Amino acid sequence: MRRKAHIAAVFAVLVLLAVAGGAYALDNSRSDQIAEGVTIGGVDVGGMTAQEARRAVRRQLVEPLDKPVVVTYDGVKYKLGADKLNVRSDVPASVEAALEASQEGSLPARVWRHLTGGELDRAIQPAVRYDEDAVEEFIAKVAAEINREPQNASVEATGSSIDPVPSKPGRALREDELRTELTAAIESPSHRTVEAQVDKVKPEVTTKELAKEYPVYLTVDRANFTLKLWKKLKLVKTYKVAIGAQGYDTPTGLYHIQNKAVDPAWHVPNSDWAGDLAGKVIPGGAPNNPLKARWLGIYDGAGIHGTDDVASLGSAASHGCVRMAVPDVIELYDQVPVGTPIYIG
Fold it and tell me: How far apart are CA 293 and CA 261, in angstroms?
């Protein structure tokens, strides 16, 4: 009985050794074969040898990476070529990582996987390298093409009219978002197109806010000797005025009311036409002071003032100023703050 037991034990050991040897041999025969369920950058390399895996990865992953990455916006395409990116991927290192992953776990676990056709379910992400400066230059180029400054609402004035100019929103490329999507596209053989996203940029002055932006506006039509008062871009009143005589022309263009005064003093210019008064200061309200009642300064000594020479209204008679009837200039004065735009045409 003892002899039989001894023989049985020896036999069992021999069987175990045979099984172990077979398992080792089976596992060793698969040492250069990647386990089922392993992928490299999305390429299924399960069951392949290292050489086969390298060929598959180059064909399905690396070669497509040579295609340009395209950014689209509003029907326009911007291409980032592989020559600029200098894309590189270490295929041998990725395959080696896949082989190492295939050998993970215990010998019995590997043998059982071999025998049953089990899968490892392991995704190897290959190291894709590229010129990041090229990406930044490309994003800057796309931004320069897409970005647009907002346009504030404004007015186009003539001597007799005010025409509102509507505002336009601007746009700004979402650069951080594009950078993230570009990175993903550069490293993906199948995802080579990215749609750029933008933010709308609101102007500081919108069309709806334009009237509030211009509560008061003045226009002077020299040809028709009129001054118009506008409030919130609507005509309130038209006044008859006199303007500068030939050689003393009232300045044209856009100006702003610089200063105001009640019964202004007259600082007589040092000009020949001033005669004995040249260089003197005539007090406000004095009979020989032509600046009657009110003064609204415009530019370089020219301004709007009252006159008692009402016969000159409707003609070119002043030395550059805009003359108004005294009741009119008094009425206008209180409605026009310093800074009010005035267009003289």
Answer: 9
Kind and range of the H or E run holding 269: none
Which H or E run contains 182? Answer: helix 175-186
Written as one string, the DSSP assignment of 58-123 is: IIIIIGGGGSPEEEEETTEEEEE-HHHHT-EE-HHHHHHHHHHHHT-S-HHHHHHHHHHT----EE
Does the pTM surpass 0.85? The reply is no
Task: Kindly tell me the burial class for residue 196, based on how many C-beta atoms sit within 10 Å of its own C-beta (0-12, 13-18, 19 or more).
Answer: buried
> Which residues partner with 49 through β-bridges?
33
Phi-psi region of 84 (alpha: psi -120 to 50; beta: other; left: phi over 0): alpha
- β-partners of residue 299 are 302
CA angle 263, 269, 272 (to 5 degrees): 135
Radius of gyration of the chain (CA): 44
Task: Give ∠ CA 151-138-63 in degrees, rounded to 5.
Answer: 145
For 288-343, the pLDDT digits (tens) are 899 999 999 999 889 999 999 999 999 999 989 999 999 999 999 999 999 999 99
Contacts of 120 (CB under 8 A, 6+ apart): 35, 36, 37, 38, 46, 101, 102, 104, 113
69-70-71-75 Cα dihedral, nearest 10 degrees: 180
Residues 105-140 as b/e (b if ≥16 CB within 10 A, e otherwise) read eeeeebbebbeeeeebebebebebebeeebbeebbe
Q: Spell out the residues 6+ positions from residue 259 whose beta carbon is closer than 8 angstroms to its own.
A: 295, 296, 297, 338
Tell me which residues are annotated as active site. Answer: 305, 321
Environment class of 48 (CB within 10 Å of its CB; exposed 0-12, middle 13-18, buried 19+): buried
DSSP structural state of residue 21? H
Q: Are 46 and 163 in contact (CB under 8 A)?
A: no
Q: Which residues does residue 69 pair with via DSSP β-bridges, in sequence order? A: 80
Q: Give residue-wise pLDDT tens across range 204-229.
A: 999 999 999 999 999 999 999 999 99
